[in-house]
Amino acid sequence: QVQLVESGGGQVQAGESLKLTCTVSGHIDGNYAMGWFRQASGTERQIVAAINWSGNNIYYAESVKGRFTISRDSAKKTVYLQMNSLRPEDTDVYYCAVRLGSSWAITTPLWGYWGQGTQVTVSS
User: Which residues lie closer than 8 Å to 76 by C-beta, 6 or more apart?
Assistant: First the structure.
């Protein structure tokens, strides 16, 4: 069975950094995009960052652009989210996701696999 295992969440003060890691266990046939979402208000999860299979097409939410960096190591089936200059409004549960195929997508129904979520808390 395919599972996404996340790590790296925690509690930090504003201005500090965290690095999230997500590794796919099990087999996925073919290429896939990877991304990070956060729960926000409890409605549909909102995309934070995403990266396609080859790593040359990257998306960032406007609120994190310039502060967060997404990267991947496809051989290790792992995606990272380096989170710098964290703000209290970044506090949320962050979810790793996988979408089959080469490209990422904005809306959550198009992503097929999800991690359990990891808590990020930023205090002022």
Answer: 23
Conformation bin of residue 39: beta by default, left when phi > 0, alpha when psi is -120 to 50: alpha
pLDDT one-digit tens code per residue, 59-79: 999 999 999 999 999 899 999
6: how many CB neighbours lie within 10 A of its CB?
Answer: 20
The residues, ordered by sequence, that sit 6+ positions from 56 with a Cβ below 8 Å of its Cβ are: none
Residue-wise pLDDT tens digits, 73-116? 989 999 999 999 999 999 999 999 999 998 999 999 999 999 99
10: which 2 tokens? 């925690």
Answer yes or no: are the C-beta atoms of 104 and 51 closer than 8 Å: yes
If DSSP codes are grouped into helix, strand and coil, which group holds residue 9? coil
Q: How confident is the model at residue 40 (pLDDT cuts 50, 70, 90)?
A: confident
- For the four alpha carbons of 73, 82, 11 and 109, in that order, the dihedral sign comes to negative
Nearest-angstrom CA–CA distance, 9 and 96? 12
